[in-house]
Amino acid sequence: MIQVFVAPPISGRLADRIQPGLVASVGGMALSAVALFGFSFLSPTMPIAAIVALLVLLGVGVGIFSSPPNTTAIMGSVTKRDYGCASAMTAMMRSLGMMLSMGAVLVVFAVVMGSTIVTPAVFPDFLLSLHLIFLALAVLSAFGVVLSLRRNKC
Question: What is the pTM of this model?
């Protein structure tokens, strides 16, 4: 729900006023990386309010990154003749990212937990899997921020 309220009105205006690539990377990816890093510390005793706050932060980050700034930055870097190809590549990369991330999650679950059913007995292994997944995604997001900032300075 947060993405719905953030993406079009807020990130669209920011992308119109500030360089869209900076809005997407600094605003969106960086907030997402912080939230994912926070999720890497999940524990059974973590307060619900902290989890909700991290979910809101992640929603804001993804909302800022997603449609307007990211698409504006991509479409602004190609000629009108290549709009169709750029749009198709953007959609393909989003789908590929979703598929690869789900595959990575399954691989981590399989390596850490094996083929067991998730029961209270394997919760520690399940939490370890979540910590590894969230930490890896946070590092990848931070790496993306650094790369995009270097790109925007050139």
Answer: 0.81
